[in-house]
Amino acid sequence: MRTRRVLPWLLVLLAGSGCAALIYEIVWFQLLQLVIGSSAISLGLLLAAYMGGLCFGSAALPRLVPARHHPLRVYAVLEVGIAVFGLLALVGVPVVGRLYIAGAAEGMAGLVLRGVVACVCLLPPTLLMGGSLPAIARWTESSPEGVSWLGYLYSANILGAVLGCLLAGFYLLRVSDMVAATYVAAGVNVAMALLGLGLAARFAYSQPEAASKTARRAPGAALVYAVIGLSGLGALGAEVVWTRLLSLLLGATVYTFSIILAVFLVGLWAGSSAGSWLARRTAFPRTALAVCQVLLGVAITWTAYTLAHSLPYWPVDPWLSRDPWFNFELDLARCVWAIFPATLLWGASFPLALAAAAAPGEDPGRLSGEVYAINTAGSIVGALAFTLVFIPGLGTAVSEQLLILIPAAAALVAAAALRGEAGARGWRVAGAAVAMAMLVFSVSDVPWEVVAYGRRVAPIVRAEDLFDKANPTTVLFRGDGANSSVVIAERAGQRHFYVSGKAEASTAPLDMRLERMLGHLPALVHPQPRSVLIVGFGAGVTAGSFVPYPDVQHITICELEPLIPPNSTQYFGKQNNWVANDKRTRIVYDDARHYVFTTKDKFDVITTDPIHPWVKGTYTLYSKQYYELVKRHLNPGGVVAQWLPIYDSDLETVKTELATFFQVFPNGTVWSNNVKGEGFDLVLLGAADETSVNVDGLQQRLDRPEYAAVQQSLAEVGFHSAVDVLATYAGRASDLRPLLVDAPINEDLNMRLQYLAGLGLNAMADQTIYRTILQYRRFPDGLLTGSGPRMDALRVMLKAR
């Protein structure tokens, strides 16, 4: 074994690399989603490019860089290269975006172009990242002690990734932006490079004699490689499935995703550390690897049971404390309880595979590079297969069953590899693997209430059981799509539409009123809308509000989840005027930001009904740059409407939302769904040009025979005249300026909103927010015009409200 004094420093180097890599991963994925979109396919392409680079880099470096070069100097060059590419991304991705939009297309050509963008941006730096472990690994040997150190190096790299995940998710991107986070990551790279060069100057290195000879392979090493590939496939597949299910229970905030990822990585770190210790002490590493796979199947079964039968019934009330950090502690405890055992075993599999595949005198760089590459290749397959095929095609329960079968298959392959180590053990392991596979029959779906109520499942179910047993809920539809999980249910004569743990629409009077306001307000403010774009299908009620308008010729709906429109049409067709079947309607399945970014079309009305701003990634539909894109796609005289919830929020979050919208639409206005203290939503209106609404002219328009269906649609939600509609006015930008003077602006690069909104989720401040906004309301002279009784009635109604 070479100088042992340098080995602890190697752990520091690999930890630094892992920390920077996780910060880059978070930043690059956010940057590139602004270009190629955030649909499941786009995220799959980004993940494939990122992990593909790690895979090829780890496999290629030992072949391309001769073993005679000092490992620490090679490492330093790699780290400097990563830092350079990280900084280039800040200026290069916007340039790539401009080139991408020039050639953006739909269909297969568009997917190919997205893949090319992902590869061009991510492959160069990730190839270098993938080479870090095999470069450092050459300081060790392929002896049992050396292989154990290889495992510790891998473990240190994961520990650094944990630190990077927490640093980026809870601090850097919360208090600053992606630029600052990139500078920190690049600084870590440069610091590690300097440390590596300093160590290289102090500790001499000579190429081991065996490294110059033809590489040798241990008998059965190919089977060990197959096991670690299956391990990677199962690990990333499980991360996809469990993140989907846990985010339902915990709330899909950016903090939740950071907690889940951190727990997953901590488990891998602890497991790989334990596996490294064991690899040095056991004479039968293949037996240990095989047993690890059998235990892994049991641990996955534990997680499936916990997610379906344990966590949903924990009496966790999200309003127990308004302190978000208290709730983060509960989320952390639930994640550890559910997924930690399995992650330990996946972590242990890597160093055990190194020990099981190692041959005396083998180049440790090549050994670690190949094992890491195959494990990563399996991870790519697992992530893509479960995201794009298994979950949308088979559902989460069957996907969990597949997760159990994967380690069963890995255990059988490992049993075959035992022929050269202990044949009798192989038969026993094979029998245990077959018995373990029978655990698939114990897996069941998570309760539908988890998909419907999400983080509120415990208090809501308890309240329904205690106070409303006479009105049981009937589930009409439940399904898992590539992007979302959906439940449509009926209770007490009302139908409700839920997406991934959030209530998005219903036939309740206040919800119907809001959903139609989002369509009718901009359609009535615009004098003659012909083309409209609706962002988000939901129950289809907002889109259906445009159906009765006689002048509307084109209705474009952009929806991320293909599961939603056909099922919403089946169960809400009457309420949404069967808009999906209207000959004027075109449904585009894409994320809205990407569609607006790439389309050449312009519209008279654009109304955006996005998911709540606290959901990770949704901030891009509330950003300054998104509103600028929307404004550029308005025809002259065009109007934009934006849904803005004030429940599950606090005043600081709402101030940021308002200030950001008004910066792009300085003539913007606020309209409220509040009726007698109920109704927790606002509608923002902005226009391409200065506009005003004549009350008398609007009423005359509604009284025309061709507007009879519009009148009926309005009357069904309590609007019987133009005055009723306009009396929902709650303020405008010029009046609210004093309230918003210090409000931060939500931009694409600072992601301000999702961090603010995630902290304000338990504020329960909707009525306080509404009253605060009303304090600044003045009668909008110049905006609402007219004469006579209608204006008098409007003044009276606004004063009363």
Written description of the protein model:
With 801 residues, this protein is α/β, with parallel strands linked by helices. It has four domains: 1-206, MFS general substrate transporter like domains (Growth Hormone, Chain: A), CATH 1.20.1250; 218-443, MFS general substrate transporter like domains (Growth Hormone, Chain: A); 448-503, no CATH class; 508-800, 3-Layer(aba) Sandwich (Rossmann fold), CATH 3.40.50. The protein is 61% helix and 10% strand. It contains 29 helices and 14 strands. The protein has an eight-stranded mixed beta sheet, sandwiched between helices. Strands 1-2-3-4 form a four-stranded antiparallel beta sheet. Helix 21 links the parallel strand 8 and strand 9 (634-645). Helix 3 (71-103) runs antiparallel to helix 4, helix 9 runs parallel beside helix 11 (324-357) and helix 10 (285-310) runs antiparallel to helix 11 (324-357). The model has no long low-confidence stretch (mean pLDDT 91).
Cα distance, first to last residue?
A: 80 Å
The fold-level CATH name of the largest domain is Rossmann fold
**Biggest β-sheet strands, sense, barrel:** 8 strands, mixed
Quote the beta fraction. 5-15%
CATH superfamily of the largest domain: Vaccinia Virus protein VP39
Give the overall shape, derived from the CA principal axes: elongated
How many H/I helical runs?
29
The computed structural class is alpha/beta
Quaternary state reads single chain
Task: Please give the radius of gyration in angstroms.
Answer: 29 Å
Helix content: 55-70%
Number of strands: 14
Total number of distinct structural domains: 4
What's the overall average pLDDT, rounded? 91
CATH second-level architecture of the largest domain: 3-Layer(aba) Sandwich
In the CATH hierarchy, what is the class of the largest domain? Alpha Beta
Low-confidence blocks of residues: none
Strand order, sheet with most strands: 7-6-5-8-9-11-10-13
